[in-house]
Amino acid sequence: MKIAKEQLKLYTSQNHDAYSIIFSPLIEDLGLSPQVTEEVELVLLLLVSAEMLANRQLDCARKLLNLCINFSLSAGNPVQRAVYYFAESLRKRIDKGIGIPTIASNIDTVNPNIMEEVLMDPRTDVIETEQMLPFRKVTQFTGIQAILDSVKSFKRIHLIDLGIKTGSQWTILMQALVGNGECPPEHLKITAVGTSLTRMQEVGNRLTSFADTLHIPFSFKTVVSDLRHIRKDLFESKAGEVVAIYSDSRLWTLLAWPNHLESLIQVCKSLDPCVMVVTEIEANTNTPIFIDRFNEALFYYSAIFDSLETCIGWNHQYRAVAQGVYIGRIIENVITSEGEEMAHRHEKLGSWRALFERFGIEETELSHSSLYQAKLLAEKSTCHGFCSLEMDGKSLIIKWKGTPIKSLSAWKFH
């Protein structure tokens, strides 16, 4: 991806038309292997297609996209898969813009409610196999360690999960609470936020059973609400309990509605938590400038496709689910939609810093124990040579072959 982008930038800087790079011998002069050369040429086709679409040269863009789709495969190598899904989405953007009925593909139209159901369903292959990727383990264990560091000395603990998914991270915390050599808490309460009461109750039942085996006094509460409509009075807070908030890739869901996002932060602040741990995708697709959004998404999801290939393998059952049901839909939504229709938006850590700072919320250091957990998990990963950790100020960035994937930050409220 980077080679193709650099070649396009170099060529256009010499006042050449982007379209003519396809017929240029520049790629042949790079000394690349035949396979890599083919991949660079394929990505160049895609990049030029996007540039031409952005410049309203729709006929030429469509012709190049047809070539991209013909030369790429949804079941090919990571580069071919990325090109396929982005080319399909670019073609749909052209069709949508000029009123042509969409050609059927194996990328379904995104539905944010369905997507949340997929992500929240503890039985789904998306979540089950997500654990096979190093990013999930690193952010989950490190985030829980950051919460544990803040609450372990308190007797009554109230944990608020803004999107509980399977809840497996809380079993880790429970074990740590009873195994830290101190007295276990007098009471542990977890409040889950989500739109599916049935699925949250299933998670609650499993957590209750697990707490019973550890002899931890435990209660599980639910707040059935979209994050856009969260209010303080929906949470049962009691005197004497310490509150901690866990937000695993949840804040981005409100980027299309800035007022609701700020309202959520205000509600979190009013609950007076000792800490709020935030995990988010480290990419900026929340921009109205189409070509910038395209480039950012292309680099990010190309890294995701590559990580799937490396960590899971090409023939695993998850790949079809991850690509078609999840990643493919996100790519299509990012590329074809504008305004509030673009449900999938992401911001980098700097934007979240600015948001929290406006509310007087202070970024806090991740403890040595939490960073040790992160390093240990990255090193133990089967693909540890490609997954790297980097500090950005007081927060942690998880990368794949140098491409930022996730950020993990902790925040103190005053």
From TrEMBL:
- What UniProt keywords apply to this chain's record, in alphabetical order? Transcription, Transcription regulation
Q: Where is this region: SAW?
A: 336-412
Q: Name one GO molecular function term.
A: DNA-binding transcription factor activity
Q: Which GO terms describe its cellular component?
A: nucleus
What Pfam family is a match, any one? GRAS
GO process terms (BP): regulation of DNA-templated transcription
- Motif LXXLL motif mapped to chain: 251-255
UniProt xrefs under InterPro entries? TF_GRAS
PANTHER family per the record?
OSJNBA0084A10.13 PROTEIN-RELATED
The UniProt similarity line reads: Belongs to the GRAS family.
Protein name, per record? DELLA protein GAI1
Origin organism is: Solanum tuberosum
